[in-house]
Design brief:
228 residues, 77% helix, two-stranded antiparallel sheet
C-alpha cells in the first residue's frame, strides 16, 4: 500500500512539474488542448478521471467540465462516467486486496457478515447504502470507494450501484461544461450541494435508527484477526 501511495504521488508530481495540473485547472485552455489532440483526448479524459478518483489532488471536476465542453452532453457524460466508474472499481479493489490487512494491523479486527442467513440481506443493505451515497454530493466519492472495499460487499453489486449513482452528477458536470458561457456554475453548484445536504440528513437519521434498533449489528460483526 505504501509503494502504491508513492506511485500516485510520483505521477502527480510529474503532472505538476510539467504544468499539466495548471492546464487541467484552466477549463478553457484544457478544452483547446483536448480539441488539438483529436481522438487521443477521449482516452486522456477517461484516464485523468480515473486517476482523479484514485488520487484526490487531481481536479476531477475540471476534467469533467472540459469533457462536457468538448464532447457535449451525451458523449461527455459517457466519458466522465467511464473514468469515474473505473477509478471507483480500482479503489475498491485496492482496499479489498490490501485494506483488510491494514485494518487488522491497526485495530486487530475484521468486518464480517454475522451469519449465513444474513448474507443476502447484508449485501442489499450495503448496496442500497452505497447507491444513496452516490446521489449525495457532500459525501466524498473517492473515500466511499476505498471504504467499501473493507466491507463484504460483492464487486458486481459495488459496480452496479456506483454506475447508476454517478449518472446524475456526471450529466450535471457535462451539461455545465457544454453550456459554460450561459451557465452560472457557482449558483448551480451551490444548489446541488444544498440538495445533497437535504438528502444527507434523512440518510443519517435512517442509519442512526438502524444502529439503535440493532439491525446493523444483526448483519455485521467484528472478529479478531488471527496473527501468524
Amino acid at each position: 500500500m505504501f509503494s502504491l501511495i508513492i506511485f500516485f504521488i510520483l505521477i502527480y508530481l510529474a503532472l505538476k512539474n510539467t504544468g499539466f495540473i495548471d492546464l487541467i485547472s484552466d477549463t478553457s485552455r484544457f478544452k483547446d488542448y483536448l480539441l488539438s489532440i483529436g481522438p487521443w483526448g477521449i482516452g486522456l479524459t477517461i484516464g485523468l478521471m480515473t486517476f482523479a478518483i484514485l488520487f484526490k489532488l487531481l481536479p476531477s471536476a475540471a476534467v469533467a467540465l472540459a469533457s462536457g465542453a468538448v464532447y457535449g452532453h451525451t458523449w461527455g457524460t459517457i466519458y466522465i462516467i467511464t473514468g469515474a466508474w473505473l477509478g471507483a472499481i480500482i479503489a475498491f479493489l485496492i482496499t479489498r486486496m490490501l485494506g483488510a490487512d491494514i485494518i487488522c494491523r491497526l485495530s486487530g479486527h475484521r468486518i464480517n457478515i454475522k451469519q449465513e442467513t444474513a448474507q443476502e440481506k447484508s449485501q442489499s443493505w450495503l448496496m442500497w447504502g452505497l447507491l444513496v451515497s452516490r446521489f449525495i454530493p457532500v459525501i466524498p466519492y473517492d473515500i466511499v470507494s476505498y471504504a467499501m472495499g473493507l466491507t463484504p460487499l460483492k464487486l458486481w453489486r459495488f459496480s452496479l450501484a456506483t454506475l447508476i449513482g454517478i449518472i446524475p452528477t456526471s450529466f450535471f458536470l457535462a451539461h455545465v461544461g457544454k453550456n459554460m458561457a450561459e451557465t452560472n456554475f457557482t449558483e448551480m453548484l451551490s444548489g446541488m450541494m444544498t440538495a445533497g445536504l437535504v438528502l444527507l440528513l434523512p440518510f443519517l437519521i435512517i442509519l442512526y435508527f438502524l444502529y439503535r434498533t440493532n439491525n446493523l449489528k444483526d448483519l455485521f460483526s467484528l472478529t479478531r484477526c488471527k496473527h501468524e
